[in-house]
Amino acid sequence: MRINCPICGDRDRREFYYLGAADYLNRPAEGDLDGIHKYLHIRENPAGVTKDLWHHESGCSSWLVVERNATTHEIHSVTLASEVAK
Amino acid sequence: MIDLVAKSPAAGLLPVTVGASTLSEQPVTQIYSIAPFKGAHVSTALKKAVGLGLPNVGGSKSEDGVEILWAARGQYFLIGAKPPPLPAAITDQSDAWCTVALTGENTDHVMARLCPLDIASMEHGDVARSLVGHMSAIIVKRKGGVTLMVFRAFAKTLVHDLQTAMRSVTAQATLPD
Ligand SMILES: [Zn+2]
User: Which end of chain A is more exposed for a tag (fewer CB within 10 A), N or C?
Assistant: First the structure.
């Protein structure tokens, strides 16, 4: 598996750390207990297109949003998390 | 007063030559990390002070014994000079890195055993952050080889991993058909 880092280019999977769903970018409002519960514990587990956060740990240190297909392993897009979270 | 003796990170381990490849430690010099503040322009002031501005992503610049490397996203390493005050986070990392040079015609083959990058496709002066074995490294392509930087504490592991690969590549090249 290879991920095309927007900064470094096409790189081997072993340079990256996987965090989890890109939902982590959408923090609930302070005091929204229901929202915080969902943010921490409730995840979709789609057999298909999914968006995840990856860290280019042994590369440029960027956080990336990687859109990929969990059934075909195809990677559709790689975006800097700083662009997505703007 | 006790007079402490400074030791280089790979003291007593290098240089090593196996077949056509040589691994040697580079002299310990000044290394400053420069991480410009968001939106800040530092290149002009830096060029005025040390003669070099910031390189492009994945690049480097060098002149008169001073070198500046792209080191990560938004981070640069100035080597061999002290930066002026800049709108940037600046840290002295001179004693934090072990810097070695791997040279010889089979450098690419040695690196292929330890690093996921295709070293042969890099141009002289190109810089990449990647792995050497399990170590996060700064890799600079040079004429006739590469310069590798890893955290100082990994010096012995770096030498061990590289030496093992150098032996293996050399042994394989001498096997009868
Ligand atoms: Zn990267």
Answer: C
Q: Which residues pair with A2 in a beta bridge?
A: A12
3-state helix, strand, coil in chain A (%, to 5): 25, 40, 40
Residue type, A22: A
Residue type, B80: G
pTM over 0.90: yes
**Residues flanking ion ligand 1, Cβ below 5 Å:** A 5, 7-8, 56, 59-60
CA distances (Å), B15 to each of B27, B72, B122, B151, B168, in order?
12, 28, 25, 19, 18
What number is the ipTM of this complex? Answer: 0.86
Per CB-CB distance under 8 Å, the chain B contacts of A8 are 57-58, 128-129
pLDDT tens digits, residue range B38-56?
Answer: 999 999 999 999 999 999 9
In terms of DSSP H, where are the helices of A1-86? 33-41, 81-84
Domain with A15 in it: 2-84
**Angle (CA) B84 B89 B90, round 5°:** 50
Query: How many helical (H) and strand (E) elements, i.e. helices and strands, does chain B have?
Result: 3, 11
Please report the residues numbered 5 through 34 in chain A whose beta carbons come closer than 8 angstroms to any beta carbon of chain B. Answer: 7-8, 11-12, 14-15
Separation CA A81–CA B4 (nearest Å) = 46
Domain count, chain B: 2
Counting every residue written for chain B, the total comes to 177
Same domain assignment for residues B40 and B73: yes
Which class for B141: exposed (0-12), middle (13-18), buried (19 or more C-beta within 10 A)?
A: buried
pLDDT at B163: 98
